[in-house]
User: Fold this.
Amino acid sequence: MLLSIKNLHASINGKEILKGINLEVNAGEVHAIMGPNGTGKSTLASVIAGREVFEVTEGEITYKDKNLLKLSIEDRAREGIFIGFQYPVEIPGVSITNFMRTAVNEIRKYKGLDPVPAVEFLKMMEENKRLVEIQSNLTNRSVNEGFSGGEKKKNEIFQMAMLEPVLAILDETDSGLDIDALRIVANGVNKLRTKENAFVVITHYQRLLDYIIPDFVHVLFEGRIVKSGSKELAFELEEKGYDWIKKEFE
Amino acid sequence: MESDSNKIIDSFTSGEYKFGFITDIETDMAPKGLNEDIIRFISAKKNEPEFMLEFRLKAYRHWLTMKMPEWANLKIPPIDFQDIIYYAAPKKKKVLASLDEVDPELLDTFSKLGISLDEQKKLSGVAVDAVMDSISVKTTFTDTLSKLGIIFCSFSEAVQKHPDLVKQYMGSVVPYTDNFFATLNSAVFTDGSFCFIPKGVRCPVELSTYFRINAANTGQFERTLIVAEEGAYVSYMEGCTAPQRDENQLHAAIVEIVALKDASVKYSTVQNWYPGNKNGVGGIFNFVTKRGICKGSNSKISWTQVETGSAITWKYPSCILLGDNSVGEFYSVAVTNNMQQADTGTKMQHLGKNTKSTIISKGISAGHGNNSYRGLVRIAKNAVNARNYSQCDSLLLGDKCGAHTFPYIQVENTSSIVEHEATTSKISEDQLFYCQQRGISMESAIGLIVNGYAKEVLKQLPMEFAVEAQKLLSISLEGSVG
Assistant:
């Protein structure tokens, strides 16, 4: 078991958002989490990442047989957890190249490895740029500064490819993408899939799941996973909308 | 680091550095206090010609009529000017035998910054004139430079060997009556650097000076004079590292730059004097007067400074744009952490036609630090079609620090354009979280974000200096958030 979440409750400023999440993810699997707006999908990603504004009030998260909740944000990342953000933040004056070199080397240091040699690093950069079809000069620009919506999302997938995570959580990576960008992002994810890693794809729409085929689909509603199934569940949701879920559980 | 240490040992044992960087140097000191006898003592010690002594005495007599300026946004504890030793010269010392004799703090600073004097010199072709305790220790590369007619030496040496040049230019940009600290410096300055680039010569190396304060209770009064004749070019770098001290130390330097027709001077500073401890005990008081004059047409003076050290910084590198079409630039990053205070900025005096100036100031405040930008852009009546662009940004880390901007603009004609932009921002929790989620520690994340913020200024620095400055920015903000 790679990730095991049991009865997870989390709140922000005293308001409970997650109300007892249970989820198990094994290596090699792709999970999709769907659900209407404001049900806690992004909160779940933030809590797994360790964002401090969210307080875990109950339950546990086990990752690689360790108590994840005890690890710092950066140590979770160094242990292989990656979040593809819905709204990636801009860091003026910091080039993607510099940002990635810092990240790669801090992760290597954590693992007791020497910094990656410059030539090797540049080779990694080139390969992964090709993977997500981003223009060569994009990596000289400041992180996300002045990027289009599509460029920001591609940049997230690019970073994921660079950091080779064990558990990648993609938070609405498909939102705001045109069909070409969507295909590129999905291709990137598919090429990175192995038996050793796992993906959790958070999305509103079934559309992305035409490209990234999930093993499991979960419906998150009012802070709980109310329904789980195979990829067919996604089609059902697409057809019927979320109203039948709301009726069933409200 | 081992090989760096070896390089440092090599540089000390090779006999190049006769006086060495050690703490137990026998110092030839003047008694505490300031009076005409002390000034005569300094002048005599330095074997100065009569005009120098007169200059000093005139300055001293004028200084007696002056008061400490109080207009800066600084809290300055009272300074007892009679409790300061105004002259301390290291005596010739035996060559060092082993690393044990080198100040470990200095080695530590060097290793933290990843540089050594020797390394810097060898790798980048930098000529180094290391100043310690007011006496110029060693000047290198002088042979190469002298073939081009370039004079690069200590101020004292210039007084001995080139008294006419010194007499002609000293005090021509910063007169001895200029301000309290400049006047004090004019009375008691002990050494500094002198740089003269003759007509049409482009100085092939970056000229660099290292200043250090080594003896406790010794005020530092450096004086630097740079003259670029017609069509000459020089890039000059000044860098400071200072070991930890318990008592406040006064530092009042003067830098004068003269650029004649078509000449261009680039002056870069990385200032890292001891800032005092977390509670504000100790640290250097840094009152500096830096000014350049673009005397001839089409001349250019560019100041770039990275100010991370000192308990108090009071410093306004300025340009007098006298020649038509002359250009003045000021690029600054000033960091105040813990209890540090900085009141820094520039003055751009537009006197000639079509003169242009650019001001980019980036203030960074953390801890209880207090950071003020103070700038004057003055466009005189005859400076038609003058142009200025100013950008003053402040970055706050935490909620106990302060950032202030005092821009003064005087425009006396209607054909000129002056622009001023200012922003204040904080490092956002979103940015930190984003970096940390990529495996980057909080400290490194702050370093990255701050360096990104200061990039516009850092890219103005010569390459070898930029690397040092980047590390310095990160080091000086260690422990400021958390």
Observations:
- The longest helix of chain A spans residues 96-110.
- Chain A has one domain: 3-89+148-249.
- The domain at 3-89+148-249 of chain A is CATH 3.40.50.300 (Rossmann fold).
